[in-house]
Amino acid sequence: MRTDTADVERPATAPTFQHIGIGRRLKNHTATGLFTVSFLVAVVPLLWVLYTLLSRGLVPMLSADWWSHSFYGLLPNDFGGGIYHALVGTIEQSFVAAVISVPLGVTVGVFLIEYGKDSRLASTATFMVDILSGLPSIVAGLFVYALWITTFGFPKSGFAVALSLVLLMLPLVVRTTETMLRIVPDDLREASYALGVPKWKTILKVVLPTSLSGILTGVMLGLARIMGETAPLLILVGYARSINFNLFSGPMASLPLTIYTERKTPTEAGDARMWGAALTLVLVIMLINLLATLISRLFAVKTK
Amino acid sequence: MAKRLDIQDLNLHYGKFHAVQDVSLQVHARGVTAFIGPSGCGKSTVLRALNRMHEVIAGARVEGKVLLDGEDVYASNVDPVQVRRTIGMVFQRANPFPTMSIRDNVVAGLKLAGEKNKKHLDEVAERSLRSANLWEEVKDRLNKPGGSLSGGQQQRLCIARAVAVQPDVLLMDEPCSALDPISTLAIEDLIAELKKDYTIVIVTHNMQQAARVSDQTAFFNLRAVGEPGQLVEIEETGKIFSNPNQKATEDYISGRFG
Ligand SMILES: Nc1ncnc2c1ncn2[C@@H]1O[C@H](COP(=O)(O)OP(=O)(O)OP(=O)(O)O)[C@@H](O)[C@H]1O
Ligand SMILES: [Mg+2]
């Protein structure tokens, strides 16, 4: 598609670069249009959700007591109160779940990649992790109920919830660890071995530090995931409108459970409490995600 | 310090693939032995078998003996970790530790073995970097990550790292393939210096280099692609390059290979 070949100054050879044709431009514009539309289709519902959350949950959240008080003693029509009790529950339960599942999951991941390779035990473990990662949260809750409460006879408690969250978080941690260890090049392991460093020390001082950023990010994302889990809470712990720090006894609130329970209060005040809790939950999860990004930057392998 | 290596009937496999067949040769103490031969003939494989790095690869198998001053490094009661502490290695591809600073890369072997004396580590770092001809370039940024160096600098960093642990034998797999002539000369000087105390095996594609640095040269070849590589001959370097015993060697050296 050459133009103005009449120019006598030009040599008679064909130009190396040809002008972009109409067809190419048209295709380009169509593709750009399609991408823009899909982007809007994906983003609009998201913004809508955020708008709804903010418009209904922001007012209760802005009250002075929100971050320091509970709903204790509030009558169905009383506005006010705070989310502190549920925040305590969510943080304690997911923190304990993480404290149990992170060391366990990282160890399993290290075993699978660094030691297991093709062994029978490793392929069995991988299979189990696969099953576990597809486990519906309600089933995790039921399992802990059957084992911890019915069989062992412990009371319903925040700790029982934490145990069910472990079942949900463990496969995430194992998977992340596996993926992150797999992308550490063998060259690095060999470099370490060649210096006369034993395998376990190589893993601890060379392989894990190299993949630390990825593993930590995965852990944070897993944490964000289990914080919103609701089904096990309905089975494993009672709801309390007062503050309970004790994971091992008594009913204990958490953000999802608060949303679920307050929904049953058919008043405007109940609605406000519910949306306030919902917005709080989303904020907490966003905060964790933000932290994950920060951690991944902070621990990333530096090249400068 | 320096030790002799006796390689007897070495056969090396990668899973079902027979990579190297029936290699027997002697590596003299306080000398430089060069391995030359066409790409894929098994030079790296043999080299890696000498400090038990071959078995690190899944499915890889070793038959035969490697004697270090008479002691079989493959004996069942020998710890491969100790073998590698005694027989150090510089790899064909530079592989600095990305999470460690330049200084920590150099002293990684000592640090991971438990050495904590900062002053001693600093001394070792400087000495090793100087001998790898890298000190002047990095002395002002020792705390920058190892990955911030250029490819050739990374390779010299790896050489410094291998020298820092003072092994008895040093295996070098094409240590100069990524280096400019000046650094190459510096490494060759280093090799000449090191061979007073160490035993060195170097793989190289550079005939002049083999001729310059080595005392004896081993020529490896393979009959055809897919066939195992074999040792054609090992001779004093002067003889290999002037009057080799085998025609294949002469063809290869004079560029009439293939
Ligand atoms: N990790 C591995 N798995 C399977 N086969 C391998 C592996 N490493 C090397 N080989 C094979 O073994 C043979 C010898 O390889 P080796 O790396 O020892 O050659 P080389 O002589 O060092 O070649 P170059 O000069 O190109 O470095 C080749 O056919 C190669 O394909
Ligand atoms: Mg090689």
Number of structural domains of chain A: 1
As laid out across the biggest beta sheet of chain B, the strand order is: 5-4-1-2-10-9-3-8-7-6
Structural class of the helices, strands and pairings of chain B? Answer: alpha/beta
The CATH class assignment of the domain at 5-95 and 169-253 in chain B is Alpha Beta
Strand content of chain A: under 5%
Low-confidence stretches of chain B: none
Number of helices of chain B: 11
Mean pLDDT of chain A: 91
Query: Which structural category fits the helices and strands of chain A?
Result: mainly alpha
The total strand number of chain B stands at: 10
Shape label of chain B = globular
Q: Main sheet of chain B?
A: 10 strands, mixed
- Ends apart, CA distance between termini of chain A: 47 Å
Question: What is the CATH superfamily label of the domain at 5-95 and 169-253 in chain B?
Answer: P-loop containing nucleotide triphosphate hydrolases
The residue-averaged pLDDT of chain B reads 92
Name the CATH architecture of the domain at 5-95 and 169-253 in chain B.
Answer: 3-Layer(aba) Sandwich
- The number of helical elements of chain A comes to 10
Which sequence of SSEs, written as H and E, runs from N to C of chain A?
Answer: HHHHHHHHHH
| Helical coverage of chain B, percent range | 25-40%
Order of helices and strands of chain B: EEEHEEHEHHHHHEHEHEEHH
Largest sheet of chain A: none
Outline:
The complex is a heterodimer of chains A (304) and B (258). Chain A is mainly α and 304 residues long. Chain A has one domain (84-298): MetI-like (MetI-like fold, Orthogonal Bundle), CATH 1.10.3720.10.
Can you put this structure into words, describing what you see?
The complex is a heterodimer of chains A (304) and B (258). By secondary structure, chain A is an all-alpha fold. Chain A has one domain: MetI-like (MetI-like fold). Chain A contains ten helices and no strands. Chain B has a domain at 5-95 and 169-253: Rossmann fold (3-Layer(aba) Sandwich), CATH 3.40.50. In chain B, a hairpin with a 2-residue loop joins strand 1 (5-14) and strand 2. A ten-stranded mixed β-sheet of chain B has the order 5-4-1-2-10-9-3-8-7-6, sandwiched between helices. The model of chain B has no long low-confidence stretch (mean pLDDT 92). Chain B is built from eleven helices and ten strands. The longest helix of chain B is centred in the middle third of the chain and has 14 residues, at 118-131. Chain B is of the alpha/beta class and 258 residues long. Chains A and B meet through helix 6 and helix 7 of A and helix 2, helix 4 and helix 7 of B. The complex binds adenosine-5'-triphosphate and magnesium ion (MG). Chain A: The chain crosses the membrane at residues 34-54, 95-115, 127-148, 154-174, 206-227, 274-300. Chain A: This is Phosphate transport system permease protein PstA. Chain A: Part of the binding-protein-dependent transport system for phosphate; probably responsible for the translocation of the substrate across the membrane. Chain A: One of its GO terms (molecular function) is phosphate transmembrane transporter activity.
